[in-house]
Amino acid sequence: MEKIAVLTSGGDAPGMNACIRAVVRTACYKGLEIYGVERGYQGLIDGMLFPMESKSVSNIIQRGGTIIKTARCKAFETPDGRRLAFENIQEKEIDGIIAIGGNGTYTGAAYFYEEFGIPIIGAPGTIDNDLFGTDYTIGYDTAINTALDAIDKIRDTADSNDRTFFVEVMGRDAGYIALDVGLSGGAEAILVPEAHTDLDHLIAILQKGWGRKKGSQLVVVAEGDDEGGVFEIVKKIKVKVPSLDPRMVVLGHIQRGGSPTARDRVLASRVGAAAVQALIDGKTNVAVGIVNDQIHFVSLKDAVEKKKPVNAKFLELAEILST
Ligand code: F6P
């Protein structure tokens, strides 16, 4: 292992820069040449690889986003696209790749390894926290704190006006953000894709609150909920409770921005360094994570396909604590 490359792919996540920094600095420390790839897999296909050095990552540990950019690359989902990417890697004589991202990034990495045998390690960069083989993903802690800050503000206005709010948080297929934010924001109910949403039960919770003259009620909805996003859910509820006059807020991409929390920076630094060491040790086709505070590896396939269960007890707890 003499020359390695690092890329960020898919949705950006706060802490990706801290991870890039850890990869670059560890590579330099270990005497490896390190290349950055612009815009993830798209950059591999377009040959956008550039040399990095220790100074390239100065003063980025605290910055949100990713300095090497990211993209969702359709072309890399095709064998032709991956062949082009491999040709560029061969031309630059890259011996190994570290791909920082989530599900899509890991899936692409696994195909790439299977087809061309290039050593590749995944590092968990996604606010969704939905990767198996790591207790947390880079960006998750920042995202939940950003969302919580917004929810606290929504509570102020909701309470002043005796209003009910439906707040949608990110998580296409996963309810981790919704559960943590809902519980820590004192939500009356939390709706997640992992648990069937019973709208009649939700209405009963809200009616109980109105009956007790609660000032405000907040329902936190994961965007991937089986009953839909906040607008669809409210539309369905209004059929049953026409007098309902709630406000809907979609927090959206605000959750992906901002300076990473200390926890995200520590996680990113640890997994970034471990990813470089893994390549040196001859590991490949694996994702690095942290389980019970220890560095942990699982196959890229398992990281994507195995389900990390959410703590469904949070739902009941939110209901108990908001009564
Ligand atoms: O995977 C991270 C994520 O933020 C999801 O929570 C969300 O569904 C998705 O990305 C949004 O992606 P995009 O920015 O491409 O619209």
Characteristics of this structure?
alpha/beta, Rossmann fold, 2 domains, seven-stranded mixed beta sheet, four-stranded parallel beta sheet, 11 strands
Question: What does the model show?
Answer:
This protein is of the alpha/beta class and 323 residues long. It folds into 2 domains: 183 residues, 3-Layer(aba) Sandwich (Rossmann fold), CATH 3.40.50.450; 117 residues, Phosphofructokinase domain (Rossmann fold). The chain contains 11 helices and 11 strands. The strands form 2 sheets. The protein has a 7-stranded mixed sheet, sandwiched between helices. Strand 4, helix 4 and strand 5 form a beta-alpha-beta unit. Helix 1 packs parallel to helix 9, helix 2 packs across helix 3 and helix 5 crosses helix 6. The protein starts with a strand and ends with a helix. The model has no long low-confidence stretch (mean pLDDT 97). The site of 6-O-phosphono-beta-D-fructofuranose (F6P) has 11 residues, from loops.
